[in-house]
Each structure stands twice: as structure tokens, then as C-alpha cells.
Amino acid sequence: MTKSRIAAVDVGNDALKANFGRMENELYIPNVIAQDMEDRPVIGIEELDEKEVLDNIHIRVHSPALEENNSVYRVGNLATKTNNSTELDPGSSKSEEDQTLVMLFASLALDAVSNGVFKASKDDVIDANYTLGTGLPLREVKEGKDVGYRSQLLGSVHQVEFLVTPQHQGKKVNIKFDEVKVYPEGFAAYVNLIMDNDLKVINKELIDKQILIQDIGGLSTDIAVIRNRNVDDDKAQGFNLGVSESLEEIREEIRSKHGVELDSRRDVVDIITRKNDRHHIMVKGSRTNVHDITDHILLELAKKEYRFLRNVWAKNSQSEICYFVGGGSAVLKDYIKALNNKLDGYNIEFFEDENESIWMMANAYYKLVTDFVRKSGVNDESKEEDKKTAKAK
């Protein structure tokens, strides 16, 4: 019987974060794609090494789940170098966008060609089986969109063909899902807060508290209300606002004021959150402060996010703490803290390690889907890895 490999994939607006087989097997790809209308030049492609694969993802994707089937895409860093790259638009639903699926399939195919678990046939075709844990914004789950999303993935074969990609040119991966678990993002964040990587409870004091989790993403904001160890579906709220529009505004103002073209929203996030030279860019070789641009735009967004918190807390007055998670929280942390100190003084908490906040969803999906696999007895390839590790010790 073919082994099924665990995949935990968070297709975030900013980037895809994934864990395969084990939590340490991480993959990070900027969520940018570009449909390819022309052949890519292949100069020097054979000289590129394994490390440069992620900068040169060039694929054809065939799947009945896609509206535009059999199209060719540049994915991630390679897509940012084109004039027709796309990022998810504000107002769109993650579960209904081809881009979400293209990113998902690309990540699984990259894992399949490099993990050594799935063997290629003589004609370079790899059959790869996965048990997938992923998630959707609370708003989409409440609207029932998770059901359609899951059924699109199950029961079909999704093929990724590597075109001009170093190390993998000409390889084809047939992806099948043995099971797909789609979790509400707010609940996933809660699981990550209370469980360690081995699914042991670490924050016992949180288990029976009523807490809020405000997950600020690129396209949406979810505020989960956790009580009695579950998301209270009636009280939880999803808002059609994230950081994407503000990042685009910053990008546009930098372009018009300084004549500097930033490749993607990821570049804007880097300017806002990096440790050194924060809020600075290079203009004609000179280090230039853009704090005036970032400041007024992010403060306006922080005020809206703070209003969401205030409204939900008013309706759930016995809440004890609100945790801010997601990539958007890392961007807005300083502004929301300053507003809270000046205004209501709620008991709020951010993750000082921005990496932890960014990887929270992918890690939570890994914990949840691993727990599902253990309880259901799915034929999982990671059990074989565990046996090999035990023998080595």
C-alpha cells in the first residue's frame, strides 16, 4: 500500500508556509504567481544548484479544480521579476482563487521531487499521496466554503510538471489526497497556543479561560472567541479587511514619491519589520527614510483593527485576554500597542518572535493533522521515519 505523507500548508496572503512529514521540514514561498505567455530562456539553468530551485519555480499545472486548467506559471520569487505577477486581491475568497491552488500544488510537488519518499518511474513521473492539513479564514468556514474547497481536492489527480526549474526540469508529479482536513484559522491558532509539537498541553492556564484570538491576515481579519475549549461559532467574527490594501498603498506612495519599484508586498513587509534599517529604502544608492509614508497608512489600519477588537470585546465582556497572531499582527504590533495604551488598556498579547507568529498557522495545521493521523490509523510514511530514527539511536 502506498504511504501517505503528512502535509501542513498555510497559503497565507504574503507567503505560503508548509511543513512536510515532520515539522522541521519547512518550506516558504512568497505568494506571487505569474501566468507565463512565453518560453523562459534556459541559459545556464543546468548550472543552478538545489538552493536556487526556490528562486526558479516554473511549472505547468493540470487539475480539474482549476478554472484555468493546464496553464504555465512562474511561482514565488521568479514571478516577482515579471510585469504580470499577481497577488491575492482584497475582497477575494481564498477558497475560490486559482492562485491558492497553484501555490498549494507547487509546494507539494517541490516536496515530492526532493523528499526521497516517493520514487520516480522511468519516465520521470512521481505518484505522491498526501494527508493534508490546511485552513481557511473563519468567515469562509462560516459560509460553508470549506466543504467545496475540500471536495475539489479529494477524488482527483492534480499534476504539476516542472518546466525550466533547476534540478527538476521534465519531472511530473501526480498528487492525490488520502484525506484533506480544513480548519478555521482562529481555532488553529488556539491549538498552537496550548499544545507543543508533541501535542502535549503546555499552557494549562489557558484551557478553561475565555480568550480572544485576533488573526490579522492579508485579506481578512478573524476574531475567534474561545470558550469551553472550542471556537464559539456564533460569537466569532470575520472581517473583510487585512493588511494587503495598506501594503499596496505604501508601495504606490514609495513609487510616486521616490521612483522606487518594489517587487511585491513581501518587500514592503520586510521594510516595516526587519531588525536593521527599519522603514528605510535605497534611493539611487542613498539610504532613505520612508517612515512618513509607512506611519500614517499603518496607523489608519491599526485604528480599524482596534475598533474590531473593541466591538468584539464589548459583546464578550468576560474575555480575559486577546492574542494577536498572523503576519498582519507583526506589521501592526507597535501601532496597536500604542493605541491600546492610550485608549482602553485591554489585556492583549503579541508574539515578540515575529517568526513564531508567521509560522503559527502552518505549525498548528501540522499538530492537528498529525493528531488526526494518529487517531485514524492512516498509513503514514512518517511512521517509517520514526522507526528508522529509533533504530539509529
Q: Tell me, rounded to a whole number, the average pLDDT.
A: 87
**N-to-C order of helices and strands:** EEEEEEHHEHHEEHHEEEEHHEEHEHEHH
What is the CATH T-level topology of one domain? Nucleotidyltransferase, domain 5
Q: State the fourth-level CATH superfamily of one domain.
A: ATPase, nucleotide binding domain
Name of the CATH architecture of one domain: 2-Layer Sandwich
Helix and strand composition category: alpha+beta
The main sheet orders its strands as 3-2-1-7-9-8-5-6-4
Spatial extent as radius of gyration: 21 Å
Query: What is the beta-strand fraction?
Result: 25-35%
Quickly count the helices: 12
Unreliable parts = 387-393
InterPro entries: Alp7A-like_C, ALP_N, ATPase_NBD
Pfam families: Alp7A_like_C, ALP_N
Task: Summarize the structure in words.
There is one protein chain. The protein is of the alpha+beta class and 393 residues long. Helix 9 crosses helix 10. The chain is built from twelve helices and 17 strands. The chain starts with a strand and ends with a helix. Residues 8-187 form the Actin-like protein N-terminal domain. Residues 211-349 form the Alp7A-like C-terminal domain.
